[in-house]
Structures are given as structure tokens and as C-alpha cells.
Predict the 3D structure of the following.
Amino acid sequence: MAEDNKPAPRAEVGTDSNEVAVEAQIVGQFIKDLSFENPSLGKLLEGPAEPPSIKLEINVAAKKLKQEDFFESVIDFKAVASNKDGTIYDLEVLYAGLFRIKNMPEAALEPFLLVNCPTLTFPFLRRLVADITREGGFPPLLLDPIDFGQLFMRRKQDMAAAANSKPN
């Protein structure tokens, strides 16, 4: 059989004169703020203690920057490990992504900035958290993946419930 060397069909994007292609680009990602406190070093030297309980807090925020089409999406991450003797470590990180977004419908912009952008930057934050806790003298804190879509929907539901519970 002879092989056909025809190119594969291409999907045409934006062929409708009213349709404009959305462009999204990661311009950069960076640590905006970082704090790691290890207040119980003396207790660590005394020997192994009871396993810690770890409290995690994750918030996401976004804002438009002064430059046209540039947005910042920030994951605010906090982890506090403690046991009956007190705080073992306290980690706080603001990890940000800088995004250039063009032609996105206004209704899609908020979900994109609060769901898609943190989903893209989270693996780097996850690695950073593991490295910092390990370098702090503890086993690395390995974070499970986060469903930012579910967090966004829960936040919207909470805001709607709060708006409906206000007295008129």
C-alpha cells in the first residue's frame, strides 16, 4: 500500500468574523513573600516527640496590574505544625504567577484567574513547601493536589449564602 502524505486537517480557530481567539501566557512566577519559623529547636534536640498535627490554610487572590492585559494570581499558603508541646514550625508563603491574558470574556476572567492560574503554579509551590520544610530540619511536607475549581465554587456558594442571609 502506498502511504498518503497529505497533511492532517487543521481546526480553524476564529474563522467567524465575530470570534476572537483568547490568548493566555505565563509571563513568570515567583515567591512574593516567605516566612519559616522554627521556634522549638531545643525541643527537637531532646529527642523524638509525639507526631505533629498540621493545620493548612490556602487562599487564592488575583488582581489586574497597571500594564494592559497583565494579571497576578497569588496562592496564599500557610502551614502550622504543632503538638502538645507547642508550635513545631510555622510556614507562610505567597506564591504568585504573572499572566498576560488577551481577549478573554469578562465573565470567564475571574474563574480563569482563581482556578486555572493557581492550578498551573501550584506544582511549583508544592515543591517549594517540601524543600523548605526539609531544609528546616523536618520531613518534607508533601501536599496533595488541590482542586481549585471546587474551592472557587465553594467560595461562590458561601458568598451567595451570605448575601441571601442579610436582612432586608
Summary: The chain is about 30% helix and 35% strand. The CA atoms of residues 89 and 166 lie 39 Å apart.
